[in-house]
Amino acid sequence: MHSTALVLFSGGQDSTTCLAHALARYQRVETVGFDYGQRHDVELRQRLVVLDAVRERFPRWGARLGQDHMLDLSVLGQVSETSLTRDMAFEMERTGLPNTFVPGRNLMFLTLAGALAYRRGLEVLVTGVCETDYSGYPDCRDDTMKAMQLALSLGMDRRLVVETPLMWIDKAQTWQMAHELGGQPLVDLILEDTHTCYLGDRIHRHAWGYGCGACPACELRARGYERYAASV
Predict the structure, then answer these.
(1) What tens digit of pLDDT does each residue of 165-214 get?
(2) Strand partners, 126
(3) Options 2.130.10.10, 3.30.300.30, 3.40.50.720, 3.40.50.620; CATH of 4-231
């Protein structure tokens, strides 16, 4: 039975829900974020706001929430010509993938998270990837996560579990999961403090939270919240 976890934590809706999931299951939970030159670097500030809010509003979880780590992955931004790392419009590419896809991003995230977990004595890597209601990124697929779990465990000669609580649920169900884990206080925290918008918009407040309302991340979050709100 595992008792420790490292959550790949961006400060967005999905990773915050995964953090709550981990805090409800494991006795010691640490978090890791990545600065890869993303245009929406406001998420790097908001993730600290979310962590402080979790400690303050959920004392039982706060007692389990350990050290936060921030890793510099600027090299990823240097090799990525994408709309998340360059000032360019969001569009579909000839490959059929949106140009928000940052090649190798989740592979690097998991590799470095695995190395950190090894050093910190953490057993489970928790990540918010999903292939049910997403943008089509190949490094979010269940097969990719299974392959990474095997590679990390073999390469480090230590069993590491890659846990994906959101893999088979859509955005409406992600909102519902947050409600089941932390009730309306957690939903309110996600609405007010998390950041998802690819353009880094913290000015426009919608029913589903802050964002431009037009980028792919905002559209997914908005549609999910609308379906969730209609069901409660």
Answers:
(1) 999 999 999 999 999 999 999 999 999 999 999 888 999 999 999 999 99
(2) 7, 163
(3) 3.40.50.620
